[in-house]
Automatic annotation (TrEMBL):
InterPro entries xref list: FAD-bd_PCMH (IPR016166), FAD-bd_PCMH-like_sf (IPR036318), FAD-bd_PCMH_sub2 (IPR016169), FAD-linked_Oxidoreductase (IPR050416), Oxid_FAD_bind_N (IPR006094)
Family according to the record: Belongs to the oxygen-dependent FAD-linked oxidoreductase family.
Name the UniProt record assigns to this protein: FAD-binding PCMH-type domain-containing protein
Sample GO molecular function, one term: FAD binding
Domain FAD-binding PCMH-type residues, every copy: 9-179
Classification via SUPFAM superfamilies: FAD-binding/transporter-associated domain-like (SSF56176)
Amino acid sequence: MTFGVASTAVLDPNCVFLPGTTAHVSKAVALLGKNDCKFAIKGAGHSAIPGAANINDGIMMSLARLNSTDINMENSYVRVGAGTQLGKVYEALDPHNVAAVIGRFYKVGLGMAVGAGISFLSNREGFTIDNVVNYEVVIAGGKVVNANATSHPDLFWALKGGNNNFGVVTHYHLSIFETPGVIYGGQITYPASSLDQLADVIYDYHVHQAVDDVLTHALPQYGYNGSMNETIATIPVAYNDAVDELPEIMQPWVKLPHTKSTLKKRTYGDLATELNEGFADGLVQEQRVFTVYADAQFYKDVWFKYRQWLEKYRDVPGFYGNHGNMPITPRQVQQGVAKGGNALGLEKGPQEKTLGIIYFGVTFDNLEDRAKVFPAHKEFVESMIEFAKSRNVLHPLIMVTFSGYDQPAIASYGATNVAKLRRIARKYDPNRVFQRLVPGGQKLPCCWS
Ligand SMILES: Cc1cc2nc3c(=O)[nH]c(=O)nc-3n(C[C@H](O)[C@H](O)[C@H](O)COP(=O)(O)OP(=O)(O)OC[C@H]3O[C@@H](n4cnc5c(N)ncnc54)[C@H](O)[C@@H]3O)c2cc1C
């Protein structure tokens, strides 16, 4: 995937605060609240939403120095500082033959642990949020709270999807799972001539592979390079076991004609490092997302239409389009329920259907081209949401971690969950510090007083 982080980088905070301990965060939150001072909370800064993790005329609190990883083998969790890059977590865990349920790219951060979080292990274990066993969090006023199944369980539930609306998480306790030390994974690159058949493999992954073998993993995506007017797909594919080749169920990925494969036995850390290499730091980025019930024809049609739309902007310098399509299997949803529930509201839909997270991302070089591309991109994705409705496949979820800045991600959890989130926010943050003073990112739907 090609991504940029310019939305975070281009803002100009009055100062950057780099707490080194939970106590520093606690003092800062107390002080900022008392003085009505605006601030932003930055994990590793990979949200594409402008201002999600940075701020003009305020303080950017970067958690980068909270980067410890302490493994507790006896109780099967790792305590991770909230500014730690995911690759560092894998590298700390790999030598102990354990892994956490976290994202797939080295430099990305734990913002996903208050959002959703799709991992190599998600087909078996669910989202990242479902595998947090404790949030060490500084709430409004500066109090440090441990939110887990038995201590502040309401806050625990709210943090599982509630983004930066409830406090500053300083450390996550993430469940760890035994691994064989190495797994089999890499990226497979398919030429344009394979893409029609690739769509069938992607659908098969959503409804068969990911469902019937929980050790499978793939991140289906297509890429469009404007300057070359070229479409290819480079797809991360992995099997979470120390096998020498993909098992039979995943053979469609390798049987399809491809131009390159980096599949091999390797650690999670090594795989996260390779995936990160496609990164395009410094580019302008816009992303949008919606969710559908898995549907082979819809998947094909939406990509075809996006490909046509992308071509219209091929002359924009550095233009690159990315279309991702990630499954949420029924088991993933059930894992959320079994592990205590989360705020996303997924358990209310038909339980037997795989969902597809339909992702659209564009990047390009110059901020001046925003006015040309962003509104048109929004209009296109809105038209695809209408298209999904017309095909009867639209699901309400707007996944917060992949959402556009003006997409109603938290409202998409449903009225009951939103009301519950508001009640919990009112209880822990009566002065609305995290609504008023932390303006960036996906906020609770307006309004409560
Ligand atoms: C290259 C790339 C690869 C990605 N890969 C994956 C993937 O494999 N799986 C997946 O699920 N998602 C993935 N994502 C999306 C990712 O989940 C989100 O961008 C995520 O929010 C990034 O977290 P961060 O800490 O890097 O970002 P940030 O921009 O620092 O944070 C995101 C939001 O969370 C809030 N936040 C962060 N930390 C805290 C905290 N400690 N306390 C309170 N609020 C906090 C911030 O205020 C901000 O609003 C990817 C994104 C990129 C750009």
